[in-house]
Amino acid sequence: MLKYSKKNINGKIVVRIDQIAYPPTVYLDTWALFDFIGDNNLTDRFIKILNNLGGTLMLSIMSILESVGLKNQKQFQCLCDLIDSIGIDKV
Question: How far is 74 from 80, CA to CA, in rounded Å?
């Protein structure tokens, strides 16, 4: 999750962007991400474990860009469903 804040310090505007992640933090590259969403049992187990532990799924901008260009819209929908199941505040 990204947190944006803006403060006025001595007449100077200071902008701060913090990345907040709750452990365990999991990063899946594009290949692993699509391997997960291709298997419903694996996806369900992953979501359950991550949600039970209160962890964070880290996604790269490249994974998002690669998924937007998919010709198979079912894969893209499965990715969106995965993100929805984890919760946007944990991604």
Answer: 10
pLDDT of residue 15: 92
In a 13 Å sphere around the CA of 41, the CA atoms on its Cβ side amount to 0
**Angle 35-58-44 (CA atoms, 0-180°, nearest 5)?**
45
Please give, one letter per residue, the 3-state secondary structure of 39-77.
CHHHHHHHHHHHHHHCCEEECCHHHHHHHHCCCCHHHHH
* Overall average pLDDT of the 46-52 stretch: 91
Q: What is the mean pLDDT of the chain?
A: 85
- Positive or negative, the CA dihedral 43, 49, 54, 58 is negative
Residue 12, beta-bridge partner list: 9
| Dihedral angle over CA of 31, 36, 38, 40, nearest 10 | 180
Going from N- to C-terminal start, the domains of the chain cover: 21-90
